[in-house]
Amino acid sequence: MHLVKSIATALLLAGCSLASAVPKPAPEAQFGKEHQHPFHKPAPKVFIISMFAPEAEAWWNIPEFDLLAHNITLPGTSPVYPDVYCTADYSICQMITGESEINAAVTVSSVAFSPLFDLTHTYFMIAGIAGVNPEVATIGGVAFARYAVQVALQYEIALRDLGPNYTSPYIPLGAYAPDQYPGSIYGTEVFEVNAELRSLAASFARTAQLADSDTAKSYRAKYATDSGIYTAGTQAPSVVECDVATSDVYFSGTLLDDVFANTVKVLTNGTGVYCTTAQEDNATLEALLRAASHRLVDFSRIIVMRTASDFDRPYPGQSAIDNLLYADQGGFEPAVQNIYNAGIKVVEGILDGWDKTFAAGVKPSNYIGDEFGTLGGTPDFGPGRTIAREEANALKKRGVAKRGRRL
């Protein structure tokens, strides 16, 4: 990891410190003078959210800007990735959450609630790799989501233990069949972000030249079928607008993929299209939503971008185990490269259009937020704000605790 020297300044807040690395002496005096009395918080225009080292490093040592001009160590961030990185003028910053929902939730909360930054006008861009559904897109491709769905937040019964009336091992919490809406709602099941901003970001990304590999070209050709169900998966990488499933379980196989595609459809009232699968997005969005409820961030300024590193299911005749554990799909390197190739176009689009469009914000035409309507408005998914809030306590009301279940 290429670290750059940060400077000790009067900016140090309680529990916050600037870390040091490779020398960069020039900003020291300027930063100290500029931010003494009164204290002016850095207010990034774009905050890139990476999940682990390869995603983060895609942004380092690039010609457009130097993200490593400042390292800011924050309490509550990952012990593996404790630093927030920023350009010299703090217009662009990056955090690395660590993989999985818990790491993402804690890291993003720590940054969003930190007193060091003013994030009220910041655009957050989740920029990571993901599995991909070959019915919708392909490895190496770039997907921008409107919905993030926590697909594994369900009852699970082992396939061998299922009765004859069940075809899915997953049943929504508080429900009795796979196609029913959850009867017990936690509030993190679905998040909806700004569809207008999503389309703008996708339009910027479509100007990028996307990376590919010979191995990926050969592998995706295996998804050609007479029915054409995987036609999208056989195509060259492109930019698409479709939705992301969140699960700490790294799943593979046609059965589970179809189950979770149905979960996305059910939980978004038929609007969402399952396209990519990742581990962190609902956790990240819940942390940002809680910060938004305190007016620390603007939930309408969130972009969810995932690049496809691997197919979520085998090609015809291949086993799910081979697809998951052994096959060289050739998608990882292009996916990581396309985080930068597509993402830099989004960042530049926001910065170049700041005065004209982005400083004031991109007004959403759709509902944004969670199932509870935490930020106001009327959710266009779920049973409605009032019922959702009532169902959040449904297990207790139904007396499940008397049967020894966890509340």
Automatic annotation (TrEMBL):
<dbReference type="GO" id="GO:0005783">
    <property type="term" value="C:endoplasmic reticulum"/>
</dbReference>
<comment type="similarity">
    <text>Belongs to the NUP family.</text>
</comment>
<keyword id="KW-0732">Signal</keyword>
<comment type="function">
    <text>Nucleoside permease that transports adenosine and guanosine.</text>
</comment>
<keyword id="KW-0813">Transport</keyword>
<dbReference type="GO" id="GO:0055085">
    <property type="term" value="P:transmembrane transport"/>
</dbReference>
<protein>
    <recommendedName>
        <fullName>Purine nucleoside permease</fullName>
    </recommendedName>
</protein>
<dbReference type="Pfam" id="PF06516">
    <property type="entry name" value="NUP"/>
</dbReference>
<feature type="signal peptide">
    <location>
        <begin position="1"/>
        <end position="21"/>
    </location>
</feature>
<dbReference type="InterPro" id="IPR009486">
    <property type="entry name" value="Pur_nuclsid_perm"/>
</dbReference>
